[in-house]
Design a protein that fits this description.
The chain is α/β, with parallel strands linked by helices. The chain has helices spanning 20-29, 43-60, 112-117, 173-185, 202-208, 221-225, 227-232, 241-247, 253-267, 289-301, 310-313, 318-333, 336-344, 353-367, 381-388, 402-407, 425-438, 472-476, and strands spanning 8-13, 33-37, 65-69, 84-87, 92-96, 106-108, 123-126, 131-139, 142-149, 151-154, 159-160, 189-192, 213-218, 236-240, 271-274, 305-308, 370-376, 395-399, 414-418, 447-453, 462-469. It has an 8-stranded parallel barrel, surrounded by 7 helices. A 6-stranded mixed sheet has the order 6-5-9-8-7-11, covered by helices on one side. Helix 10 packs across helix 12. The relative contact order is 0.11.
Amino acid sequence: MRRNRNVKIVATLGPASSTYDVIKALHEAGADVFRLNMSHGEHADIAKRHDIIRQVEKDLNSPIGILADLQGPKLRVGTFENEFEDLEAGASFRLDLNDEPGSKERVQLPHPEIFAALKTGAHLLINDGKIRLEVESCGADFAQCRVEIGGTISDRKGVNVPDVVLPLAALSDKDRKDLEFVCDLGVDWLALSFVQRPQDLLEARELAAGRAAILSKIEKPTAVEQFDEILNVSDGIMVARGDLGVELPVQNVPPIQKRLVRKCRAAAKPVIVATQMLESMIESPMPTRAEVSDVATAIYEGADAIMLSAESAAGQYPIEAVTTMDNVATEVESDPTYTSIIEASRSANRTSVAEGIVAAAREIAETTEVKAICCYTESGTTALLTARERPRVPIIAMTSLMETARRLALSWGTNCVMSGPKKRFKHAVISAVRATLSEGYATADDQVVVTAGVPFNIPGTTNILRVAPCDERQIYSTELE
């Protein structure tokens, strides 16, 4: 399904978007990738949504990416005798391993690994940072704290520990079961929550065994500090601004977002900007002006994708939220300022033949009347390198692998067309031209750039480029092997 924009849209599915009609409408409105949140919903619900997505994909003949977002190690306090308590600033409050119901003086924190890592002066944030505690003393089974910012604390509220690296397994038992389940279903991307260090990806990659690409969610300060190493071992990145904004001062998040997006672009790895992008549309059919500006900022930065969470999963206006994102993206990308910003921020250390080929394809497209860049790709790498160049013309990724087409649904500006295996470059050119014409990217009087690797069907061999006429008679009249 051809889009009139380059940035991709990720829509989370949930109670408000679990039927065939709604999911189909979301894709037609602009959703390129669907997110399955493993924190909510039973396996039967997840499987049903997965099957519906694949049916929509088949009915519309349009590759759709599916992202399964693993819950990660969730840290929560225990329960209270009165279900909640009001903590006042300056008061003392104790966290411990005692499973008795909590009071105004203490509550259980059933995570000994936290106490093992805590130090005097460290902070604990409860209920999305609404309550802030400072550790005054601690041991193997307790932390005596002073309340810096008070508020209401209630049963099983979440806990963030921004100042230390926690000795937690990257995957919980639930995550391992969920990972195997969604890989068996056939999802395209796995998102890992609360990544702290590059080693956190090793187990997930081993368990996935190539069945899904691995995406790291950056939502902890320690992940920001080790971002280059995490990026190196990830297939993609999500800038998860919700928890990141809890564990860091909120004013730090925008510059971090800009740095991370730019680094992902330079590495040719897809990056999603996520969390609270159109939050008011959970209950309102119209977004705020500030939300529209937030979405536009991510697009101007060159993010590969922007994401809806509760807006599409549980909100009252899921289709309107996707439509709003699509409209904002279309308008921003038609702004001449957008092109100048994207091109001014282009940076890449090109060290291979494939990188030189795709850079040349982009330069040719910018200096001639070429209407599209058609790249043959098996693993998806050539398409990602082409997307890194952020060309002014559409990218048509020609592949014989549906798995590759689905994963590329997350990549900036990439339009995937299924193409059978090729043995001769001439046949590849003709197939690319036909795809360009049938999808409406060009007419018979136009030209396209075609890149490929010879010999064919061997990943990582992109080594040839041709500017081809869209008139097949001219192709046949030339000697082209």
